[in-house]
Amino acid sequence: MAQVPLRNVPAGKRVRIHGVNAEEGMRGRLCALGLTPGTELDVCSQGSGCCVRVRDTSVILCDQMAALLICEPLDDRPAATP
Questions:
Q1: What are the pLDDT digits (tens) for 27-44?
Q2: Which segments of 1-82 does DSSP mark as H helices, in order?
Q3: What pLDDT is recorded for position 80?
Q4: What share of the chain is helix, strand, coil (3-state, %, to 5)?
Q5: How many CB atoms lie within 10 A of CB 62?
């Protein structure tokens, strides 16, 4: 399946994080937010940032941080509803 940066995933889609293209400090910050390889998340909105739902928590990322997360869409499944 195609892998794309999180900032390119449209709202309403569910994805799995494949990798994190960041230096150690930023990688640690993203991991502390629960954004680790293998984690599934729902993209809630895109715009001047990216709102995702991960492990029952909403997280808002700036575009630069969302670009660091490489994701694979999950079979065009819609995001889970809260």
A1: 999 999 899 999 999 999
A2: 24-32, 63-68
A3: 61
A4: 20, 45, 35
A5: 11
> Could you list the residue range(s) of the whole structural domain that residue 35 is in?
4-78
**In this model, does residue 22 exceed pLDDT 90?**
no
How confident is the model at residue 51, as a pLDDT?
Answer: 94
Residue 30: other Cβ atoms inside 10 A? 18
Here the CATH number for the domain that contains residue 55 is 2.30.30.90
The tokens for 48 are: 């001047």
Candidates 71, 74, 46; CA nearest to 61 is: 46
Indicate the SS3 state at residue 79.
coil
Rounded to a whole number, what is the distance in angstroms from the first to the last CA of the chain? 26
Quick one: DSSP state of residue 21?
-
Domain count of the fold of the chain? 1
| Whole-prediction pTM | 0.85
Model pLDDT, residue 79: 59
